[in-house]
Amino acid sequence: MAEQPRMPIESGVPDPFQYMHPTLRRNFGQWKYHDRPRPGVLHHVSHNGEEIWTVKAATARQLDVFTMRSLCDIADEYCLGRIRFTMRGNVEFMVTDESQVEPLIKRCEEAGFPVGGTGNSVTMPSHTQGWIHCDIPGSDASGVVKSLMDEIMHEFTHEEMPNRVHITTSCCQINCGGQGDIAINVQHTKPPKINHDLVANVCERPSVVARCPVAAIRPAMVNGRPSLEVDEKKCICCGACFPPCPPMQINDPEHSKVAIWIGGKNSNARSKPMFHKLVAAGIPNNAPRWPEASAIVKKILSTYKETAKDWERVGDWVERIGWKRFFELTELPFTKYHLDNWRGSRHSLNSSAHIRF
Ligand code: SF4
Ligand code: SF4
After folding, report:
1. Which atom of ligand 1 lies nearest, measured to the CA of 172?
2. Residue 166 contacts by C-beta under 8 Å, 6 or more apart in sequence?
3. I need a surface site. Which of 66, 96, 195, 207 has the fewest CB within 10 A?
């Protein structure tokens, strides 16, 4: 018998079809159209006439085993034991009988999972891991989301916004945060304080030096031991040196703040993708409820809801009315921190004779 060639071990994404609801599996790629009978419910119709209703509900995203069991119980009762999660930590239950939709919604809401997040709603904010899982957070992104969503749940369960609003939060300044219609991110405001006693034991100094984006870190001898020093005039307080070298202590209860950015967008639907831009800086990183950050986000959301035209995303709305008008309408202060004074900003500033913000 010919020797079998050695085969690669496939360790990528598992085959999703085995876990799919049978109606979805049968009609994969065969959908004729879909609509939304009410907020939080999608209705798909296949070319062969089969129909399925998907009920989308919010979860706490970081789930304990008891919450997982309650979700699985609902799936067992209504959906042939099938359940799926979205990128933003929503859960989706599918039923093929329209008469099951309302009882399923009632069951989800009674179990504490509000139904919504479709169409022109504020979708479930995406957040990074925060204090539970990661070793470098300056804030707890998941806690910020929880506090905020407690106050704007109506906007999740209703489709009353001009267009969908994606909120993102990031618990450090450098890694996981993405572009959001509204983004709440950490902002360090002071250079790191170096714990020189630990540097030699914990850090590979060349890696830390190489990590700094503005070359502000140099090797140095301190008290006769190898350590590091920071040129504070150059440091942009980004926090990139903290992950490879925890003795570069940049997190600070007073000086690590929260900043709010708006107008980011990944999709190219209707308008091109956009980077988000800073609108509020130096907001207190005030656990456990972050009232100052929540108040600003709520003000931006209500202003957007009142003044944007239909189908304008947050970034499109600001582009149309202008940044000056945005700051007037939201009553947010425009400060020197909003000016892009980074040394590479010649590429991002408008270089015509007409200076605009
Ligand atoms: S945003 Fe930063 S602190 Fe938060 S999970 Fe990502 S790497 Fe960790
Ligand atoms: S905080 Fe950023 S800019 Fe400052 S020293 Fe560390 S890596 Fe460099």
Report:
1. 2
2. 123, 125, 126, 180, 181, 182, 265
3. 66
Strands 277-283 and 256-262: antiparallel
Ligand 1 pocket, residue 134 CB under 6 Å: yes
Check pLDDT > 80 for residue 295. Answer: yes
Following DSSP, what letter does each residue of 248-264 receive, concatenated?
Answer: EE---TTTEEEEEEE--
**Alpha-carbon dihedral 101, 46, 121, 131, rounded to 10 degrees:** 80
CA of 112 to the centre of ligand 1 (A): 28
Residue of the CA atom closest to atom 8 of ligand 2: 212
Nearest atom (ligand 2) to Cα of 236: 3
Q: Which of 237, 242, 255, 342 to mutate to test the pocket of ligand 2 (most atoms within 8 A of CB)?
A: 237
Structure letter (DSSP) for residue 165: B
Q: Which two tokens stand for residue 63?
A: 């789930």
pLDDT digits (tens, 9 = 90+) for 169-215: 999 988 887 889 999 999 999 999 999 999 999 999 999 999 999 99
Distance 275 CA to ligand 1 centre (A): 19
Beta carbon of 144 within 6 Å of any ligand 1 atom? no
Ligand nearest to the CA of 240: 2
Six-digit token string for 329: 């309408």
Q: Which of 66, 70, 76 is nearest to 57 (CA)?
A: 70
Q: Which ligand is nearest to the CA of 242?
A: 2
The pair of three-digit structure tokens given for residue 124, joined into one six-digit string:
């479930």
Q: Which DSSP letter does residue 115 get?
A: B
- Quick one: which of 189, 191, 219 has its CA closest to 204? 219
* pLDDT score recorded for residue 357: 47
Q: Which of 61, 129, 142 to mutate to test the pocket of ligand 1 (most atoms within 8 A of CB)?
A: 129
Residue type, 281: A
For the range 97-104, what are the long-range contacts, defined as Cβ-Cβ under 8 Å and sequence gap of 24 or more?
98/51, 98/53, 100/53, 101/37, 101/41, 101/53, 101/55, 103/78, 104/55, 104/74, 104/78, 104/79
